[in-house]
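Re: that chain you flagged

S.,

Sorry for the slow reply, it's been a week of failed gels. I finally had a moment to sit down with the sequence you sent. For the record, here it is as I used it:
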Amino acid sequence: MTEKPESDREPRPRSAQSYAGQVVSQLQGTYQSGVPSARATMAQLRRLNPATDEGVLEVMSIAFADPPEEILGRGDSASREEIAVASALVLYSIHQQSKSQPMHVPGVGLGAAVRRLANPGDADSREKPVMRRFQSLNTATDIKEILYHLRGLVQQFRANDVPLDYSRLTR
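Prediction finished late last night. Pasting the structure tokens below so you have them in one place:
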């Protein structure tokens, strides 16, 4: 099954974006303060797969604290909002690993981060791995494929110290 075009999708509740930003910011603050439990939490998150209901439940049990009602699923499957927030947390934990500077920076969208790596003024930039990964992400049709390509981009951002706004990533 393919996803609806962006224009046909229902917008995520603003609370999912706000909640993701709040949780990532708190985790980043404790991690950068050297709190051992934050390091342990991030190590646990890095091993999870938020593309599955089980992975989302594990992320929720590790890192969600009093999530807004609007993002919680109503049945046995995770809601889109739960998946989005769980994905942001897992990807952030990969990005921040062993970094002293903050990798969650409000206002740095995915496109801006990709541009920083791709150098759009370079004629060969379309052939760079970051652009190939970004183009693959744009054609992805399911959550597993989307997360696969996002994880690859985040690993490239991490290798080049390019920050990203994880609350905006939930949109």
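What I noticed first: The chain has a mean pLDDT of 88.

Talk soon,
D.
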